[in-house]
User: Fold these one by one.
Assistant:
Number 1:
Amino acid sequence: MLLFLFYASPDKVFNFLLLIICGNLSRAKYKFREQGILITKVYYCPHHPEITGECSCRKPHPGMIMQAEQEFNLNLAWSVLIGDKISDIEAGKNAGVGINILVKPDSIPECLTTFFNKKD
């Protein structure tokens, strides 16, 4: 599972979005819902390489990231991607995401909770 934490609009104003890009839709939604984290949109790949063959959206291909870029007019160079698999980071790099962070598996919801509850 990977996600975008924020992006910068052309006027350099930072806007926060939570866009999840994953292979298993229900797992991602429930993990974040349990933490009380609002999800802007979830993208998932409905294909399976053994059944439908290769596709452009399955990580490490950047198809779903590019779809999010167009839908939300993202500035990928100013975006942050957090992933818990190497394929997440590869997808971010393939899409031109500016900052790609690899965290321990299944720790993304806790990372977000810590980020949004920071008292600075």
Note: The first helix runs from residue 25 to 34.
Number 2:
Amino acid sequence: MAEHEHPFGHEPSAIATRRVLATGGVLALIVVGIVIVLHFALRNAAMPYHAQVAIRPAPIPPPPRLQPSPENDLAQLRAQKARLLSYYAWTDSAHHYAHIPISRAMEIYVQRHASQSSNAKSADASAKKQGARR
């Protein structure tokens, strides 16, 4: 038998296992080295007092304080919006358009669309009866 022939007709291993493992080991060492260097560089150079900065209270901005009591301002805004939704008024000087309370507007809407929906239902019912007769 020849020196390079393998029994049972198997091909020789085409993978250089030692080279692959050595290359993987070198790459792993390079990655670990870069991580260690970045860790120390960032800890000592970029963020030397990170813990002190993190626990320090936030500085108060300089005057003027634009909203000293946001709760009161919010309550006033909500009261103003509630007034807008609950009164009658003309929106133009020619008295063509009026502002009405939202509850009354919803009542008018329901009255108008209830009659339209009942007409549509009766039309659908008659169409179904016509289709059933054919």
Note: The beta strands are 89-90, 98-99.
Number 3:
Amino acid sequence: MTPKEFIDKWRDNPLKERASYQLHFIDLCALVGVPHPSPSSHETYCFERGATRTGAGQGWADVWKKGFFGFEYKAARRNLGEALKQLMTYALALDNPHKMLDAAVAKAYGWNDYTSEMSDEEILRRLLALNLARSLL
């Protein structure tokens, strides 16, 4: 799937979050060339991973890959902060995937000095510098 095909398909998606997020994620995986969840990967990579939410009972992460990430969808025009807040309540049950993902991304950027205590300001400064450098190529 090309970026244009992805954008054209999903730009005006009329479906509700629950009806479309798995299809969207599968297309996102196709776009970036990585496998999507399948029945054979259900123990380590799946849709609807059950988890006990800190202070909120049982819940379901929309997409989960053990040791890598948790992914929470929200409907169009909803606050993405809600998705992050919800996902954070799953963090302990899902092995703190956001910290692992942050570390993997930092490593991919070549930030060998990254720690989870790095300030948001420093991360933003580095991202802006990286984007500027790439725009000059």
Note: Residues 28 and 34 are 9 Å apart (CA to CA).
Number 4:
Amino acid sequence: IHAAITMQTQRIAMTPANTIPIIQRIANAAIAYTAYIGQLFWPTKLSVFYPYSPLDDSMLQAIVLGGLLMVITLGTLVLVRRAPYLAVGWLWFLGTLVPVIGLVQVGLQSRADRYTYIPSVGLFIAAAWLGAALIQSRPAWRKPAAAAALCIVIGCTVLTVLQSRHWKDSFTLFQHVLAVTDDNPIAHNNVGSEYLHRGNHVQARQHFEKAVEIGERFGWKNIAARAHFGLGRIAEAGGDLRVAEKHYIDARVGDGAYSEAHNNLAGIYMVWGQREFESGDIDKGAILFDKSLALTQQALEHDPDNHEAALNAAFLYQFLGDQRKDLEYYRSAAGLYQQAIDLAEPVPVVFYNYSLVLARLGELDKAIRQVERAIELDPTYQDAQNALLQYLTQASKASSSPETNTSPNDVP
């Protein structure tokens, strides 16, 4: 029952079978079994993510440990009549770990401590009954055994306190992960992201580059994609948009569903497009804006809740609508501005731009409500105040002359 429930609940997270070769998964299973036993009774170097080891480095170890597991299994079966609790506990441990031992791959971790909650009960059964049997046959061991049990409880308490310190925050946690594991690209990405957030681009770049190297070496394209995205953000912050473009493209190649990578690449083309428009090259600017718009649409396809992508797409539709005098562009822009507003409370300029689009569509009442929201957030917003005055003037004219229609050229 435990195995069936575990397989069902993790079905969504299952990694395609060709991500990790079957021979490597079998070898890892033998290593993971013994690692779980070791860390259960000597809980050190615990990590939230244990990466795979290269197959060439782990094959001999897997063969030796796999043989050891077989010997222990045969031993418990030989002793099944004299000490049935050994077989029960051992087979409990082996059996309940089967769904999560990695033969059917779930995620990219080689093992996970959380998987041992139920399997470890089997080893404790074997240990408890064995201890009871030994004490029963040797009464003199009773007090030393009690003292040993007390020491174990105290030791586990101390280790728990020490381990809990690593969970202070994500930065502290993943720094610890890097200290106790090797070739861990997920940890490098997390630490790099925190350094980037803190403005330490030198340290961030080192961790992202390491994550790229490890991810590409192991074929973990989606992890390398995250690192490329981080390197792109660093390059963009430093003004090197060509380098940023390359990293964002690499991120999209590594993970086609990476919404943020699509949107950030769109942002670069928006910047370049604006420069072309400002220099007078309308055709080249329009090409770059169309390219940017396609990327924002892809970003929203993969993540409809991407607030920044919705805003970028709305601006692009609005700008291209102004250039091409096409009401369909304005309708698309209006829908995206509303989507962005629904996703997060925007800044005043978003309400102002939304009002411009609505006014171009002839929806003056809605435009007035949106520009008033902009002024509520920033009473000194002069452009919004001017737009409100113009909308009110046009609305007054429209009410006195019902046949008057609002043209896209009649609004600011």
Note: Residues 266 and 358 are 25 Å apart (CA to CA).
